[in-house]
Specification:
With 326 residues, this protein is an alpha/beta fold. Helices cover 35% and strands 14% of the residues. Strands 8-7-6-9-10-11-12 form a seven-stranded parallel β-sheet, with helices on both faces. The chain is globular. The protein binds glyoxylic acid (GLV).
């Protein structure tokens, strides 16, 4: 009996691929850059499973070209690259990888906070530019972290993990969430509106998914509410922040600095003016990139594919409504 086909859009941790190889006919795109949309569409055409990354656009057209698709498994917790409503309408379960990357991502968000507050990348550049000639009372002075106020926008797993780290630094916590106030209060934080959070925070850290509601959630008006000494941190999705408004705020000094793990688009265009600013630290979407966590994400994505091929509910499914029909 011929085995079902699964297309994997990038080389993953080998143990995850070996498990898939054992149960299906596996095709893995093994180049460094992602396959283009048309290639994925062609490979999906005869496939029962698709294991994709956040770089891959999986839309209704692609799903229609792949009538045999039984599962779409994204190796990411976010899934804004997939038209989930279209998948649900076609009865295709979509999997993601929540939980395993929470602590790693929050570690990194806190690292961005510390690096921007204490100007670590600028300090390294200072030495490389041969400027370190003496200990100086004011050179490269940054902002304190302990005792400062951290505003967390979005209070899912990663937002809560960020709060846990901030408590260790005696930070005061403000949270804006569409979820219940109880979980905010239990975390020792104060639930507030977004505007109040922006006005009162020394650091603002974004932890919301990218949706129609959160696209450009932080624009010119929101940035103008922030303190001139405040720092914005984005480990969510680039589209949550209006990049042009952020450039204006940073270059005019209406906020102090920004730390961005994510940009819009990705990769950031090399002529994006944000790259010219010393007070904007930008890294290439690596918040979940620890060796151990990326391996766990690959395993989890493989688990979702295996369940989908068997017709079992996916262990982590973002559209469980597909199982409601019977
Ligand atoms: C990374 O950004 C993810 O969504 O897992």
């Amino acid at each position: 009996m011929s085995r079902e086909k699964v297309f994997v859009t990038r080389e993953l941790a080998s143990s995850a691929l070996e498990r898939l190889d054992g149960i299906c006919e596996l095709e893995v795109w093994d180049e460094f850059l992602p396959p283009d949309y048309d290639y994925i569409l062609r490979r999906a055409r005869g496939a029962s499973g698709l294991l994709c990354l956040l770089t891959d656009t999986i839309d209704a057209r692609l799903m229609d070209a792949a009538p045999g698709l039984k599962v779409i498994s994204n190796m990411a917790v976010g899934y804004d690259n997939i038209d989930v409503a279209a998948a649900t309408a076609r009865g295709i379960p979509v999997g993601n990888t929540p939980g395993v990357l929470t602590e790693t991502t929050a570690d990194f968000a806190f690292a961005l906070l510390m690096a921007t507050a204490r100007r670590i990348p600028e300090a390294q550049q200072y030495i490389r530019d041969h400027k370190w000639r003496t200990w100086h009372p004011t050179v490269l002075s940054g902002q304190d972290i302990f005792g400062a106020t951290l505003g967390i926008v979005g209070f899912g797993r990663i937002g809560k993990a960020m709060a846990k780290r901030a408590r260790g630094f005696d930070m005061k916590l403000l949270v804006n969430t569409s979820g219940p106030d109880e979980s905010v209060l239990e975390a020792g934080a104060e639930p507030v509106t977004l505007d109040e959070l922006l006005r009162r925070s020394d650091y603002v850290s974004l932890h919301v998914p990218l949706t129609d509601r959160t696209t450009h959630l932080i624009g010119a008006r929101e940035l103008s509410l922030m303190k001139a000494s405040a720092i914005l941190l984005n480990t969510a999705r680039g589209g949550v922040v209006d990049g042009q408004a952020l450039y204006r705020a940073l270059s005019e000094g209406s906020i102090l600095a920004a730390g961005l793990d994510v940009t819009d688009p990705e990769p950031i265009s090399l002529d994006d003016p944000l790259l010219t600013l010393d007070n904007c630290l930008i890294v290439p979407h690596i918040a979940s990139a620890s060796v151990a966590t990326r391996a766990k994400m690959a395993e989890m994505a493989a688990d979702n594919v295996i369940a989908g091929l068997r017709g079992d509910p996916l262990p982590t499914c973002v559209n469980p409504q597909v199982y409601d029909k019977n």
